Amino acid sequence: MRFVRNLIPLSVVLTLGVGVACKKPAPAPVEPPKPVAPAGPSQEELDAQKRAAEEAARLKAQAEAEAARKAAAAAAAEKEAAFRRAAEAALKNINFDFDKSEIREADKAKLQAIADFMKAYPQAKLQIEGHCDERGTVEYNLALGERRSHAAQAYLVGLGVASDRLSTISYGKEKPLVQGHDEKSWLENRRCEFKLQ
User: What pTM was estimated for this model as a whole?
Assistant: First the structure.
């Protein structure tokens, strides 16, 4: 009986020892995965791309502005050239009979062309120069040249050209168009010239 009493605690101790010995070890803690930086350009690369895009935009705007400036300059040059061509075609001399300041029938078409030019180009202003041939005194020819320039001015005003766009001056016989002492030369020198101002 005493043996059985000693045997029971021994079996309990053995059972507990076997249980402790068979216990599985706890699993090692697993570390969570570290976050991975997303693939792509760095901030430095993004800044460089931004600067490059801004520079490209600036160069494009500069090129467009330069192209616009050149186009405007070309358009202005063409407009000026067209104006000069029209003036050259329209501003023809008119002539006068000896000692006269009346507009000749043959010259009315020329004055009409000048009036049309003035209406087409409202910015144009003219100086009408009165000239005479070599005969007569200086004073007489200055007065005659003045009457001729005034006659041309009045005719143009009658065709609708504003008088403040037309000024007059007389050179008398001081600026002959041709040198000669015959009727043909005198006729060419008895004239009005129309000069752009």
Answer: 0.72
